[in-house]
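[step 3/7] fold_predict: job queued, chain A
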Amino acid sequence: MKAMVLKAHGGTDKFALEEFPNPEVCSGHLLLKVSASSVNPVDYKIRQGLLPVGPELPGVLHGDVSGTVLEVGDEVRGFEVGEEVYGCVGGFKGMPGVLSEYALADARLVSKKPHNLTMEQAATLPLVGITAWNALIDRAEVAPGQRVLVHAACGGVGQVGIQLAKALGAEVHSTASKLQKMDYGYGLGADRMINYKETDVDAYVSDQTGGIGYDVVFDTVGGKCLDDSFRAARTGGTVVSIAARSSHDLTPVHLKSLTLHVVFMLLPMIANQGRESHGDILREIRKWVEQEKITPLLHEEVFDFQEVGKAHEVLESGGALGKIALRANW
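[step 4/7] structure written:
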C-alpha cells in the first residue's frame, strides 16, 4: 500500500511517499480503507522528536481517521463490512498511524461515523472530541447554569469545548487573539468572547463575572494560560488542563481551594487500559453531532496526504483557523 512515511525525526522534509506492507486484520480489530485524517499538535511534536510516544522510524504517523470497514476481525461486535467509521487509532508506540491506504484499528477505539459529516469533517473530531469530553464531562462535570471559560476558541479542542459546554447548559465564555477568531467563537455558541491580547485576566474576570470568577476554566494551551486559568477561576472552582508539562506556582490553587484536573487523552491507547472508553465517547459524540449540538470547524484548506508536511507547517505557524483535515487522494 502507499503510505506517507516519516524517515527520521526533524523537519517536514522527513516525510516520503513509499510502499508499505498491507496490514492484516487480527482479533479485536478492523481493517479500514482510509479516507481522511487530521493534524493535531501531538503529531508534529512526534515528528520533531519532542515526545517519546511515537512509533519506531521509519514509520507512519497520525491517529485521527475516518474510513470504510473492509474486514472485521474475530471477537468484534457491532461493525459490518462497508460501514463508515471514525476514531483515533494509532500513530503511537506499537500502533502504526493512518497516513496510508489502509489502517488497522482496535475496534474499541472506533465508532460509526456521524451520518451528517463528510469523511474530512469526521476525521477532525476524535482526538479533540475525546479530550474535551474527558475534561468537561468526565472531570469538571459541567452542569447547567455554571459559568465556563474555554481558552482558545478556534483551537481544535477549544472549539469542541465551547460546543460541549453550551450543550450542557452552561454560560460559555471563551478567549481569542483577534476579531475574526472572536466572530468564529460566537458562531460556535459562545455567549461572550474575550480578546486576551487586549484585556488582562483580572479585567475580564471583573467585567464578565463581577469579580467572582468562573466555575470551570478549561486550559487548552498550557504555560502562562494555565496560570491565567488559576486567576480566572472562582474560589472553590475547577480548572482542567490538557497541557500541564511545565512548572507553576500553585499558591492561587491553594488560596482559592481550587480543584485541578489534568487530562492526557492518549493514556488509554498507550497503556492499553480502558480503550473502550474512547469508543463509548465517540458514540456519544456521534449522537450530539447528528443532533447538531456539535459541528467541527475546519481550516479552509484541505490537504492531500502527500502534503502532510505543508499541513504540519500551517498548524505549527499558528495559521490554522479550526482543525486541519487531510484526505487520502492517492
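[step 5/7] annotate
The chain has a mean pLDDT of 96.
The two ends are 10 Å apart (CA to CA).
exit 0
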